[in-house]
Amino acid sequence: MKQIKVYLLKHFADKKAMKSLPANKGGDFFYIGGKNKDWKLGNSPLANPFGISKDCSQKLSTESYKSWLFDKIKKVDKKVVPTLLKITTSKKPIIVCNNKRNAQVVLSACRWLEKLFSA
């Protein structure tokens, strides 16, 4: 799988900055977060449904997200799997709200899918 860059949304001061990503042509990217009104970004099919809170640590959130995502793949979810396949075959960067660990889970899932299809 090609190297895919990962960026945190908070690193962009405005939308013009987002369009200036090095690997980004015309502001084209994959967003893998929940709905973000400030940036007018819709809820991604890959958004982590396990938010970090006093009852859910970042580690537990990431572990739960990984289990959830791979379960969706095994069930051939009609939104999750096509999105992962697009990421796998694209050079577009990934933008995540505030947790790069979620992006690492997505990249791990992409690599797993790539192995399945190349076998």
Brief account:
About 45% of the residues lie in helices and about 5% in strands. It has 4 helices and 3 strands. Strands 1-3-2 form a 3-stranded parallel β-sheet, covered by helices on one side.
Structure description:
- The protein has about 120 residues and is mostly helical.
- It has one domain (about 5-119).
- About 45% of the residues lie in helices and about 5% in strands.
- The protein has 4 helices and 3 strands; from the N terminus they run E-H-E-H-H-E-H.
- The chain has a 3-stranded parallel sheet with strand order 1-3-2, with helices on one face.
- Helix 2 runs parallel beside helix 4.
- The protein is globular and about 40 Å long.
- It starts with 5 loop residues before the first strand and ends with a helix.
**Elements, N to C (H/E):** EHEHHEH
The number of strands is 3
The percentage of residues in β strands lies in 5-15%
Structure classification: mainly alpha
Shape, principal axes of CA atoms:
globular
Count of distinct structural domains: 1
End-to-end CA span:
14 Å
Low-confidence stretches: 22-26
Topology at a glance:
Blueprint: E1 6-8, H1 15-19, E2 30-31, H2 58-74, H3 80-89, E3 94-96, H4 100-118
Parallel strand pairs: 1-3, 2-3
Helix pairs in contact: 2-4, 3-4
Which structural traits does this protein have?
single chain, 119 residues, mainly alpha
